[in-house]
# Entry
Amino acid sequence: MFAVHLMAFYFTKLKEDQIKKVDRFLYHMRLSDDTLLDIMARFQAEMQRGLGKDTNPTASVKMLPTFVRAIPDGSEHGEFLSLDLGGSKFRVLKVQVSEEGKRNVQMESQFYPTPNEIIRGNGSELFDYVADCLADFMKTKGLKHKKLPLGLTFSFPCRQTKLEEDIDVDILALVNDTVGTMMTCAYDDPYCEVGVIIGTGTNACYMEDMSNIDLVEGDEGRMCINTEWGAFGDDGALEDIRTEFDRELDLGSLNPGKQLFEKMISGLYVGELVRIILLKMAKVGLLFGGKKSSALHTKGKIETRHVAAMEKYKEGLANTREILTDLGLEPSEADCLSVQQVCTIVSFRSANLCAAALAAILTRLRENKKLVRLRTTVGVDGTLYKIHPQYPKRLHKVVRRLVPNCDVRFLLSESGSTKGAAMVTAVASRVQAQRRQIDKVLALFRLTQEQLKGVQSKMRTELEYGLKKDTHLLATVKMLPTYVCGMPDGTEKGKFLALDLGGTNFRVLLVKIRSGRKSVRMYNKIFAIPLEIMQGTGEELFDHIVQCIADFLDYMGLKGAQLPLGFTFSFPCRQTSIDKGILIEWTKGFKATDCEGEDVVDMLREAIKRRNEFDLDIVAVVNDTVGTMMTCGYEDPNCEIGLIAGTGSNMCYMEEMKNIELVEGDEGKMCINTEWGGFGDNGCIDDIRTQYDRKVDEGSLNPGKQRYEKMTSGMYLGEIVRQILIDLTKQGLLFRGQISERLRTRGIFETKFLSQIESDRLALLQVRRILQQLGLDSTCEDSIVVKEVCGAVSRRAAQLCGAGLAAVVEKRREDQGLEYLKVTVGVDGTLYKLHPHFSRILQETVKELAPRCDVTLMLSEDGSGKGAALITAVAKRLQQAQKEK
Ligand code: ADP
Ligand code: MG
# Structure
């Protein structure tokens, strides 16, 4: 009993002594956490250098873009071919990825030899050979007449310019083995966004934000980066870490000075490092009594599998003795214990270095996502990691210590690199199929030059119809005379009240115009119009309006004042004079009863009478387009057109009296309120209307009416987007196919969200946040699609609006017999003002469609308010002049 204890004590003591001895000898290989954190920081800087356009050429870590943009989402299915061109063998696989509710991959494969002359030969011979093998495989597997998508794993650094290159198969995805590993693991765990190989070589890939990848165009979404981290240190960045043993190993390698990080880590070198160290220790008399063997002198005699065997927990010591004896040595008990410790230090350093670089990647991912804590999965493959008994445990532990704010799961990839190629192909093929479907929808919104010209010419026809007596009543563009004949001449002055009833709000304004200096001062108050009043009775609506006026007069201390009033009423009205306007029909969100067919000025007068508190001199009823034109005309005499792109869409312009058949007289000009929102109500633009436009129309207050407006204005663009999103979701192309309650809610997608989402300054993450605020749980890919949808809808709106405007300016140019027309358009409306691209696209379209017109778009400053006052002032001036006559 005592002897046993003594033996155990003796052994423990012996082991401790040997460990101490080796530790002292190899102290430079034992890296502290501080050193590892330092290496991690260096690798972070290296990644940054590799990604930057200017720094990449000299960076040692190349950070190669792989053009793999998406990881599997589980909906992949079908049969794929995959080729694995790695070392000496070459493998062809058929991979069946099934859907059927659960994730399932089945593989059949065959190995082919790769003769040396083919490997060393030129590229086309290699590809001929590959094609032959592929043909053979397809024949034996009975796949001959199928055209299957194909992926190719290529475990050498490759600069890729695009994922697919055609060699007579459907898709050819060129995949690095790290990417294959990541993709295989991501198929089982959607959190997987890093792939690491610790095998013969070592390398890693991860999903990087496109905005950080200078070498690839585009800023949206992510792309997998193949770091090629094996070359870390090739520029001398790790010289303080490398030991004399590393240098010796490098000098004896096939590629001295290259892949220095890899040479401290991977399976190809770990055994050799151990051999070099043992030889050195023997030489200085620290091992084998100073004796060496010729095997110990021979390069490559200790392999990684030996190191793994020697480090086995139970059999390790016996294995060590056996391996050393096989090398022609006669190890003592102490020697075996020492050699085990050497193995431990070398393989532990490998895991430590890997952990430091991996920690750098994880930190980068966390920072890209602006997260305090990152939850992620790392897919790992490679023999060293797989066969070494302690390696995985050590790696995991160190990573977790280096990045305590990351919850990392490590997932072993099953035959990662080859299956991965099929996964990449499967994803590429899924993404391609989805892309096709999405493009099909978006294509409906892309109008050709021809189509836009068609819209322009139809608009022109409708404008003419509306002006003519015979066709006026049937015309969809009503061309309403406004009885506004003069533009301000700068002599207008006085105090005026203005009312502005447009889309949603109602405003009362006091406008003070001073002549001479053309100065206008305004005071206004905004009142909300509750929905129940917009859609209640006419009396209620006008009583509410008068109530607001009373409030305002009170507020301004103007209670008894009898001021001239202009009423901006932005709905189609048939006018017989400037102060009479019969509402033809409500548009936008209004539907108050007993108003259509009535004179809105009369209704206002009656409401004032009902209230019996004050009296007002209602001089003019004004459309907002006219007010806008007037306001700009006050500053710029070339302004003869007014345009609104707000809740609704409308336009007015100065027309020759002789062309206006509905109004007596041929002298001078009169402003025509086109009411072009009704363009297309006869079906003339139905060829460009989409099913989504029809859906929006069906759900509106006035189905079948205002078709052009419903494709171009603020009230509807968001709804069109929502209809498209619903359809794409139904097709399984968005939001994981789940139509949320929110998405079903009419009006949730307001046009202001288009402006926000389409803003160039907005990162994808912010788009995602906006969608999340809308209750739409979107992935990165979803956000890209939503942004594209918004862009397509707003672009079409601006182009259609531009085509309409082009029709008017061309008409004016021809009517005046001009070679060239210079004209200013006064514009108002929140869509025009706040959307990031609307105004530019509108302008570009006009320029293309009306090349002989020089059209200046001038933003109107509160056209509806100021314009109403100016029209009132002009009308007053003309009244005065009449009286004096
Ligand atoms: P109105 O046309 O009713 O007189 P506006 O010109 O202010 O008033 O237009 C209001 C409309 O503009 C809203 O109905 C909405 O559809 C749209 N809108 C609001 N905010 C934005 C925005 N940020 N970008 C684009 N459109 C917007
Ligand atoms: Mg307005």
